[in-house]
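Hello again,

I reread your note about wanting to compare the complex against the isolated chains. To keep things tidy I'm splitting this into two emails, and this first one only covers the full assembly. Below are the input lines as submitted, including protein chains and any nucleic acid or small-molecule components. They are followed by the predicted structure of everything together. The single-chain runs will come separately.
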Amino acid sequence: MIVKSFQWLTLLVALLLGAVLSLHVGGRADVGIADLLAVITHWDSPSLSQSIMVDIRLPRTLIAGLLGINMGLSGLILQAITRNNLASPSILGINQGAALGMTLAIMLPGFFPIADEAMAVLGALFAGILTFSFAGGLRAKVSPLRLILSGVAVGAFSFAMVRFSFTLDDEVSRDVILWTTGDVAGVRWHDTPLLLALSLFGIIASVLLAHRFNLLALGEAASQGVGANPHITLVLGALIAATLTGISVSVAGPIAFVGLVIPHLCRAMIGSNHRQLVPAVALGGAALMLYAEAFSKIVITGEELPLGVIAAIIGAPYFVYQALFSKEMGL
Amino acid sequence: MGRFLSLMIAGFTFIASTQGLAAREVQHELGTTTVADQPKRIVALEFSFVDSLAAVGVSPVGLTDDNKPERITKEYRDIIGNDFVSVGARKSPSLELIASLQPDLIIADKTRHSSAYKALSAIAPTIVLDSLTGNYQSALKQAQVIGDAIGKGKEMTARIAAHKARFEEVKAKVATAKKQGRTFQFGVVSSRGLYLHAPHSYNGSLLQALDLPLALSANGEGVSYESAYVKTTLEQLSQINPGVLLLGRYSTPALTDDWADEALFKSIDAVKNDQVYYVSGHTWARLRGVVAAEVTFDELVNAMDQVAKKDAK
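Full-complex prediction:
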């Protein structure tokens, strides 16, 4: 019990430190975490530094955290419903599908009668459906290898289409590249409500489904045996994962590896009970993205690296480590 | 005998002179290319090359217009007419279309077309110049290279001299906008990003040549497309704090419109003192060369007049 508490404390401290770091650094060296404290004491007449903290840094940090929650949870859900620890939004092609939807929205503004975010969610859903149907559909047995291969195929196809847009006009391609590498430099408070609402929905839905995920982990027959139809779990899970991925991608591009790495790390720390894994992954995902957000502002002075690049730099080595040394990959 | 000799001499002279005219060695970024003396069917793969052809009144048979005819502006069309074929986007011109035009000279860009140099050379003699990442001074040099390559070296020299005279006039005029400690900055803004043009970029070097101090400090020589155009967040812009901001707008509303109500944006000197001017982003940022620079001059002089007027108030 003490060990468990210690694990939770570690996650919370990591999150808090990440938030402080992410708020402390930015384009102006004269604005720091002290201004956040000053905001609390002098709310009525904020100075310029304080309004930078409130108008620019806070929404950015919040969004980075929410993205981490969404990507982490959708990775966890996908791993649970596929019973495959290699599953993640980027490996199943869902990230790239969302990117394709979003790219189409950028390339052909006004052509689609729905919002850019909806295009991303649709793209995510469509790619997910494709991957699952190539891998054997909703039949009882989906082989892990086939699933991964289908995901890679769908992802590669989608991203090839995204890359096609790079050959277009400089300005269009610059917009697409900027956004596909995960850029949150321009976000403000008005970008937060939808993401916040969907993150809350994601957390609540995952908590509600946690028991079903646990049953699914015992095998489909066992799950069926206690009255939890595994197909319903699979469909619900896939829908939630696609929605969380789609909305995140629409905000900051396809950020890879968070959805893969965080569930693994949390499983190693907390164990495999999804009732605990869901909050742990939310905390861990948010923490990782906060560090990524902070580093994206530090690495090159005077310029910013896109968030997705930093997330990949942090996430990719862990993936390689897992692939080389983990027995749970199931390949 | 005397007549025969003189005929022979005349004949040799004729052969020698036609041989001298027949071809010309042109040195460029990727080597030396032999170009026919008076190429008649020229394909230009960057706007600045079209500019150089227009500067001496030569019409290309083919050019890249990014599949947007309006990108070949009126200033060019007034000179080169409309009788050319679009060979597609500067980034990905159609080799098939270029070949079908049976050109005798192709002018390509180092950044965009180096990888296609072999394929282009197989179609026609190709010279490669650094338009995209080149600065103002190199744009003028390239204009001369193009002038020489098409057998209009003298005309180009005269045209550039006229341009330089114009440049000096402009330099004197814009000096009225200068003030102790005031900096100037050009950038383009779309709905997703603000890109400031660094000192080593084309526009950065142009403003510097005109003796206007830039807000963005020089850090290293520009080699890449990315380093010449610096993506800038609002926080960074406020740190750079330009005194006069010249912006080329690529979309409406642009990011700077979204920032309009933010305290941080309002705290920037250029915004605070109402010294933000919107200029033609296309002409400033995409076009370059003597013809385009003179349009830029007009817009710049206009803006700097207003700067000076606001100072006088």
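For quick reference: The interface with chain B takes residues 26-29, 31, 48, 51-52, 55-56, 167-171, 173-175, 178-179, 185-186, 188, 302-304 of chain A (CB under 8 Å).

B.
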